[in-house]
Amino acid sequence: MTSEFRGFPEEGLRFLEGLKRNNERPWFNARKRIYEESIKGPMNAFILALGKEFESFAPEIIATPKVSGYRIYRDTRFSANKDPYKTHVAAVFPHRGIEKHRGAGFYVHIAPDEVFVGGGIYRPSPPDLFALREHIAAHHADFRRILRNRSFRKLFGDLQGETLTRVPRGFPRDHPAEDLLRHKQFLAARKLDPSIAATPELHTEVVGTFKALYPMIRFMNVPIAKRSLQSLQEPRFRT
User: Fold this and answer.
1) What is the pTM (predicted TM-score) of this model?
2) Which residue has the higher pLDDT, 207 or 231?
3) What residues are paired with 101 via a beta bridge?
């Protein structure tokens, strides 16, 4: 497997368009070779190419097909939507010292109608969310500098994600970071024209987006990584 990435083949992108209209097992199985060669293979190469980039600016971020790649098969057990396949291809890039999907990381997906790229923390556990809010409360000036950085503002605008209507319990209502503390999610993302997916420019744009987002990712992972390390160091007792 090589890390060279030149964009997704047009055949693969047409496959995703067709899958959106024909989300059925017989249709997919008859074209599985196209998926393997023109979607899964190029995505694995894209992941490896991003991993080479992370070595220079985000060495703690994991980028391997096994960890980063998502299966195209949907879990329909608890969903009213019984379509068997996702109609996009996606990858996530987590912190190597934190459980996948627990800390802040990067994310990208390619769909027929958009390329979506960004990251952050989507659904932190209550203890992790409280630790993150404590970190923000203590270092809100640093966090605001990150969010006000010219590159961040140009690509993402404001911090995104669901928020509370009031300052959460445990923090004063007049705290200078009350707007940040009300966040339940801490996200930043942008959409690119889907035509870029077939070109080498996809790599350039995604790397540039991740570099602009990295200071926020690094800041948010400080308290999560600390809690993760503490949990590993706690003694285990057999009963």
Assistant:
1) 0.93
2) 207
3) none
